[in-house]
Fold each of these.
Amino acid sequence: MAPILEIQNLYKNYGPVEILKDINIAIEPGDFLVLVGPSGCGKSTLLNCIAGLEPITGGDLMIGGKNMTDVSPKDRDIAMVFQSYALYPTMSVAKNITFGMKVRGVDQETQTRKLNEVASQLQIEQLLNRRPGQLSGGQRQRVAMGRALVRDPKLFLFDEPLSNLDAKLRVEMRSEIKKLHQTLGATMVYVTHDQIEAMTLATKIVVLKGGIIQQIGSPAEIYNKPANLFVADFMGSPAMNLIPAKARSGGKGAQIEIARGTGDPLILVDEHAPALPEDVILGLRPEDIAEAGFRAGADVQDASCLVDMVEPAGADTYVVSELGGKQVTARLHAETVATPGEMLDLSIDMSKVSYFAPDSGQRLN
Amino acid sequence: MTELAHPPAQKSGAFGKVVLRWVLYILLCLFALYYLMPLFVMVTTSLKSLEEIRTGSLVALPREVTFDAWKTAWSGACTGIQCEGLRPYFWNSVLLAVPAVAISTFIGALNGYVVAQWRFAGANIIFSLMLFGCFIPFQVVLLPMARLLGLMGIAGTIPGLIFVHVIYGIGFTTLFFRNYYVSIPSELTKAAKVDGAGFFRIFWSIFLPLSLPIIVVTVIWQFTQIWNDFLFGVSFSQAGTQPVTVALNNIVNSTTGVKEYNVDMAAAIIAAAPTLLVYIVAGKYFIRGLTAGSVKG
Amino acid sequence: MTKWLETHLPKMVLAPSFIAVLVFVYGFIAWTAWVSLTRSRLLPKYEIDGFIQYDRLFASPRWDTAMNNLFIFGALFIIIAMVMGLLLAILLDQKIRTEGVIRTIYLYPMALSMIVTGTAWKWILNPGLGIEATVKSWGFESFTFDWLVNPDFAIYTVVIAAVWQSSGFVMALFLAGLRSVDDEIIKAAQVDGIPTWRIYSAIIIPSMGPIFMSAFIVLAHLAIKSFDLVIALTGGGPGYATDLPATYMYAMAFSRGDIGQAASSAMIMMLVVFAIVVPYLYSELRAKND
């Protein structure tokens, strides 16, 4: 199938400042693409470029196979949901939703029909005569979605649509957006700084930093095989442990040596390790450190650590210990008993380990 | 020591507070008298006969209320050679202020909309240049403007004065609307663009309906400025087209005949009435305009 | 074509105003500056002849009086209006129940034309029937208050009327400033047991620097432009005793037919305004860009 959105060598400058550098993205119909990154990484600018709200400095942008680089937003067959919802304050909810159709000269009958369809889909029928100022945050969010849905566009764009909602509502709306995506089969591009939103919603994630794409991949790829230290650190909560270590490559795999706060260093053996330089950074998700004996397998190795801190979090207990000079978090079972200042027997799943080069930050395995 | 001293100290503290409160209110009332006194004197004087003014006290209430002075001020007082009172000039001011306020407010709204929501390279420089125009002493443009109005054939006419007031009002009206529109999230414009609306459509359907408060502020500000203007009025008008402030000054300072203080005062009140009325009815917006016009964004 | 129109429409909408400002503000300033360097009298001439008009201006005793008056009037007007405005704002800030009414009373003069203000005070201050006569009629026979007709004091009557007109406005500015100080800071100070006057002098007023600055700019601007008030109150007299640069310029331009003098005096006025406004605008714009 032809990609529905294709971005080739896109550059965006504000004066002498490069905001986006050499962006290449292609998504298929039905994809849910999430652009994620810290604030100022250029993700919202990229979305505005896709919408045609910002001119691009270089490269091409295709929607539905047509080159849209110089086409104005209204002719791109897109709809957009904004962070502040951007509802027209002086218009009723119904008028907000139908404004786009009215501008385009759609006949009254179709307007009413589509309005009613969307209103019932989003369960906002009883709000249609209200003004945006009389709505709660969640209701505004729904109206903003309604305004986009009613257009039935090729491409939906979302600019951090949930960031103004409180935590509970955010989770609720998140699953509703996901449901909507599944029932409509629509193609969506979604910007967020929240990596959990990215993981839960996306079929494809683009991680951006400083206007440069760090990694493109499925949520699982991004989570399990981060392309560099930035992605490893940014995606996942609690963050991936990044532990400085010494590697000695042998005939088969490598021996990894990690300094421990007390006593002799921790020695781990990874039979599948590629050829590694002497200094590496070991990336280890908190859930890949478990209580000793809990996980079995050839790659699970014991590691006894001094407990520095215990943080019970309800479903899990986080245990913090110092390894390689870093605070390393392990995600353990809630019932596990750990006492600060005492040793705890843990095990590490070496099959899940990532290796990074300390200088370039790039992934090594 | 503290235990013994405390209760009386507290008592005297409360007593001191009451005294302080009284002093405060008396001070505030004295100041209020100071601000009201000229208005009071104007009104009472305008209701007295000349005879009573000469013999009575400035601050005394009129013994016999008479509206003769008001009649004369409105339709009989002399501004130089003509003796038609303020009436024709009052209407001149109305004819001048209404279109000048409307036009400058409309232009300001459009300009503010462009500067705040359609930023383009150089828009800020243009805005700064316009803003700067608000601060020049108008004396520096009087001479060339007089010549230009002559060249355009509208010297000494009301359209000429409208033109001048519109030109030099744009800076402020643009400033007002720009500061108002800049606080409206640009996402609103973006959403409307994605919805397919163009420049004017967004202005009419979205921004103008939002603008009632700032329109009120701007209209009041411009009306007060233009109605109260004297410099442009006296420089660019001629007998017959003068605004009310110029006519008032002519009545008061005309040297012919007996000095009729009651007529002067009545005329002054008539000239002040429209802006005073606006202030009383919409003081909140008037003050907002004043502070916005001076503190600026 | 439509795409071009779409992207350039905002510029085209702004363009007429921009051109108008360029011509009628900056072009006209240039014209006045040019003429101020010529020997123009009744009609403008365009041959530049150096600073002759400025030499004449600075040699003119009437201009000298006007500038002196500007500094006396400006300094007194600004200082008194600021002090009064601040005092009134602090008094009104004490949770006064009738604040709305009082504020309305203090501020109404600002809605009046300077011509009206001048007319009113001219009547009140005239020695024959005004305050002087009234106080005399109360039995103080030796009381004199003839500033309006006394060349040495007439300029102070302009100050009186101008302060009356503008001090309420300064009060409104300061009141807004007082109210914008973070409430928690004041509460913290109260909890610390700091007396009210110390809270004002040590915490609130120092944090109002920008408001003082704007009030100063507005008042200075009003002072330099003052024209109508003098015309209505004293007509510049007695003699030239209350002339200000603005009235001097007007007299030269429209009654004396001396365009060269009018232009050069207008330029000086503008320079004085710029000397005050430019640093302010500059710091404002810089603060905004940072």
Amino acid sequence: MVAQAVFYLLAILTVGSAAIVAFSRNVVHSAFALLGTLVGVAGIYALLAADFLWVIQLLLYVGGILVLTLFAVMLTQGIADVSISNRAVGRAPALVISAVAAAVMIFAVFKTPWHQAAKVMVGPTTYGIGNAFLDTYALPFELASIILLAALIGAVVISRPIDRRTESPSEGE
Amino acid sequence: MPGGLTLNHFLVLSLIVFALGLFCVLSRRNAIGILMGVELILNSANINYLAFAFYGGGKYDGQVFSIFVIMLAAAEAVVGLAIVLAIYQDLRTIDVDATETLSG
């Protein structure tokens, strides 16, 4: 009973904030509503007994990606700019496509006899995740570090201001 | 199962979030708005991974995969927002309809 109440509260928070993200006319409102969605999803993770993922969601998504998104919003948009900053065109076809996709998925969810274990396990997950990373998933784990390094270097290279001197060498003479 | 919650509860929640994210990606013209829609879709995928991991008997594969998803989302956000800022430096707008200077 308590778990159900918590689930529905988190679901309302998640879906309501996601609706603001999707429908708001102001990109700053969208960015702040993303906070509600990410925190709600973190609560869902906790409800699913994923303690490590819950902390990772808060640290990386709320603390990292959301702050980065807000930075980008503020850098590309005047903060005082409250006009329609999040223009949306073609809402009707987008709504139709999303509704059809949702209907197909609801049909699939309720028609499929999902494999479910007889008993769910609740307990600390860090030990098992650590073992999985260093045993079964050792190669993807190493690839992940290469991807992060590439993203790091790529972001620095892309966001570096354009050096005008190298662009037109004849000007400096 | 804890407190009368079933797998379908979580699957329906995640597909609602996915549909909202899809709508956001399809209808937005602000590049950052599109990236936010991608974040919604990735979060809905993660809910699915963890729901199946939980109701599938407590194996760690789903959790490991969702960690990879979060890692890739972070990399995507960093590179995507860097590209958005570079476009803004050049064109003074991040409206994706205005950034079609390559089209003949």
